[in-house]
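Hi everyone,

Forwarding the result from last night's run.
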Amino acid sequence: MRRLILILFAIYLSSAWSSRIKEVFSLKQIYFSHINETTLKNETKREPANVMPQALERWQNKLFLVTPRFKLDVPVTISYINITNMESYKNNTPILIPYPDWKMNEISEHNFKSVVKVRADVCDRLWILDNGKINNKQESIPVIHVYDLKNDMHLRTFDLGSLSTINSDITNMEVDVTSSTCEDAYAYIPDSETYRLLVYSWRTNESNSISHNYFHFDPLCGDIDLGEVHFQSQKGLYGIALSPTARDGFRTIYFHSVASTMGFEVSSRIIHSGNYDKNLNVYDFKVMGNRGTNKQATSSSFDMETGVLFYGLLLKNVLGCWNSYSGEEYNELTQGVISLDNSIDMYPADVRVDRTGNLWVLSNSFQIYNKKNYDQNLINVKIYMTPVRQVIKGSICDEM
């Protein structure tokens, strides 16, 4: 009885502490730029593209958006919005500018096929994960492209074909690097269907995979109800976020599966070792705790200044948060909730904290887009941005 009262009290506090994060873009129809333009004027006649932004990343005055080729008629798979003057978009539809140009987005042997995630590192490099799937068919092997953001020059392409399988589901990536270790960067790529973590080393230009039971799904958490769409999920490892570098030079890697409400962690020392043994190193992976009922999570991101771990909650259009610096355990009573809005057909697809301490969230109606012809006259994508400290102020995730 006492436990029930505590849980109900926590739920009440989560509701009371729900924070509003500022909406900066609400997109009905998506347009790509053919010339040097940033907004679509009301009198402009142009057909919108049949795309669904699925991930974002901010670097300086560019807000990158990823539009995977879930369907055949997706003209551009990675682009950006120029956010130098955000106010200019108040009464205009933003135009997405193909990155690095239109030509690289045309489907051909050495070009982008279907970009699913993009990450900008502290060394001003853009890491682009392309899973090679077009219209749900594996047209090419997954690869990582890396560009120099200062001049948009291509630096490297790495082939993940030796690690991917016919059943692989590669749609997320996190980059582990500091400004003093640019040549010793790592990319962590979860494979949600084969329950593995793919690890790429920039220094050696090699990759390997790691398996662990904590990468699997929870059969009690696979029932996913997203309003108009209901399905059973067996998706495993997906969300990955990184703590600051500790004294030993390594980070804590926070991770979770989609069809699960559990959180786990492991030191990057284990991942970098190159001689991982799933039997000898099994206890180096730690159980953090349980977020609570119906708190299956998608993408996650960590704010280095406040120590707050953010994650998108799949079954509701809200974010969850937990303050790792507070000393509190990771459980249902210590999870905060950040409300977005009341859109029941949307969910947070990507969550990012940028280098200036702003929290960015991309929320969309992908489940409707993916299952049927969605209405492009309705708002299908929303992007939010607010400083982290403002978002968590007064909540259970605040340092207080």
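The helical segments are 2-16, 102-105, 268-272, 366-371, 388-392.

Cheers,
N.
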